[in-house]
Write a structure and sequence with these properties.
Largest sheet: 5 strands, parallel
Structural class: alpha/beta
Number of helices: 9
CATH superfamily: P-loop containing nucleotide triphosphate hydrolases
CATH topology: Rossmann fold
Radius of gyration: 16 Å
Shape: globular
CATH architecture: 3-Layer(aba) Sandwich
CATH class: Alpha Beta
Order of helices and strands: EHEHHHEHEHHHEH
Strand order of the largest sheet: 2-3-1-4-5
């Protein structure tokens, strides 16, 4: 089978990282994130990263190096990767969608949930320094320049998972997506 590039898109707290990790563990996928270059840079200076810092650095990189700065870094990772399933987690901007579609064999998976469900999940995970925020502040995240296009990109997806239910439902839907592509779980 030829290499496939799967783009994962979804709002904050929707379940993208869970799906990405599952694809790594059960399908042997290699996962890369658009945010990796940003996170790698910030982690030199900070132990716990905030969305605000990631947003600021992304905007600075974009202004200095162009809209496609993260895509250029990720393309190199994908081309160098020997794995046949590459998952690019965290599509956020229209050029990200265009980037994924530039690969001959590509699919987009949209993982979404209601703002309340996503806020509850994000506040429990305490992954980023600003995860434990009020619901009102959480809703404002969806209005940031790095988040505003997510539903538009999701509308262009090949497959959508409504992650309002439990983890089992999310994983079953992910398996359906992979089976539709002709992939089976590893033993």
């Amino acid at each position: 089978m030829q290499k496939i590039v799967i783009g994962l898109v979804g709002e904050v707290g929707s379940g993208k990282d869970t799906v990405g990790k599952y694809l790594e563990e059960k399908y042997g996928a290699k996962q890369v994130r658009f945010a990796d270059p940003i996170k790698d840079t910030l982690s030199i200076y900070f132990d716990k990263l905030s969305r605000a810092d990631q947003h600021w650095l992304f905007m600075a990189f974009q202004e200095r190096f162009g809209d496609d700065i993260l895509s250029r870094a990720i393309r190199k990772k994908i081309e160098d990767e020997e794995n046949q399933i590459v998952v690019v987690n965290g599509l956020r901007m229209p050029p990200d969608l265009k980037f994924i579609r530039s690969f001959e064999n590509n699919k987009i998976l949209y993982v979404t949930a209601s703002p309340n469900t996503r806020w509850e999940r994000a506040s429990k995970r305490d992954e980023k320094s600003d995860d434990s925020t009020s619901f009102e502040n959480f809703e404002k995240i969806d209005l940031k320049p790095t988040e505003i296009n997510v539903p538009k990109i999701g509308a262009e997806a090949d497959f959508k998972v409504d992650n309002e239910f439990n983890l089992d439902h999310l994983l079953i839907e992910t398996d359906k997506f992979m089976q539709n592509l002709g992939y089976q779980k590893m033993n």
